[in-house]
Amino acid sequence: MAASLAAGGTAILNPASLAAPTNSTLVPTPFDSAGNKAATRPDGVVGQALAALDSHAASITERDRIGIADYTLHSREFRFHIADVEGGEIIRSYLVSHGRGSDPQNSGFARSFSNVPGSNASSQGSFVTGEAYVGKHGRSRRLHGLEAQNDLAFDRAIVIHGADYVDHGMALNQGRVGRSLGCFAFERSEINEVLELLGPGRLLYVAGTPA
Predict the structure, then answer these.
(1) Cβ pair 205, 48 in contact under 8 A
(2) Please, what is the Cα angle at 70 between 151 and 34, to 5 degrees?
(3) How are the residues of the chain apportioned to helix, strand and coil, as percentages rounded to the nearest 5?
(4) CB atoms < 10 A from the CB of 3, how many?
């Protein structure tokens, strides 16, 4: 089996069981020579996310899928992953924004993180997905921070939403995607899929290294 069973019969993803990448690099650029998405296998980040899934078991009601934002990578990378916990594999990877306050030089790297209102920065750590709603960015999903480093996420209106500034063509032509005000912004064409795969009660884990 791709997954192992934890106490109580819950299937737990084993990072070592993830499907091998389709090319030879561990962290590829987001597009191959034909302009297609390249696969990524972020074993270390997956392990961190699985540990967080267990640490916050009381708050995570749905354990079938988890979202992982690997903010150690550049914004041109497909650095947001949705993992099938029971199946033991990453099923989809996406472009995702980080906050302006985390990257004031617009370098494409999230270099710092904050939980402070008005910082416009991304926060690290574990979140649980909340209800979907329709707001100024269209269909979106609320988030609740589970740790001291992100527990103001709901008050800061840090959510999942679509945005025109996250785009395949932009990543190719400019070498990076745009920045949010701390939210997880995805391509318009993919936001509905992200919202459905990460329905309420699921873990969204953010990995990043402060500057």
Answers:
(1) yes
(2) 145
(3) 15, 25, 55
(4) 17
Determine which helix (DSSP H) or strand (DSSP E) holds 13, and give its type and residue range. Answer: strand 11-13
The candidate with the shortest Cα–Cα distance to 139, out of 195, 184, 190, is 195
Domains, the chain = 3-207 (2.40.440.10)
Residue 6: other Cβ atoms inside 10 A? 14
Cα 53 to Cα 202: distance, rounded to the nearest angstrom: 9
At 204, list the tokens: 């969204």
Q: Cα separation of 108 and 85, whole Å?
A: 29
For 99-129, write each residue's pLDDT tens digit.
Answer: 999 999 999 999 999 999 999 999 999 999 9
SS3 state of residue 33: coil
Instruction: Evaluate if pTM is beyond 0.90.
Output: no
> Cα(103)–Cα(109) distance, rounded to whole angstroms?
6
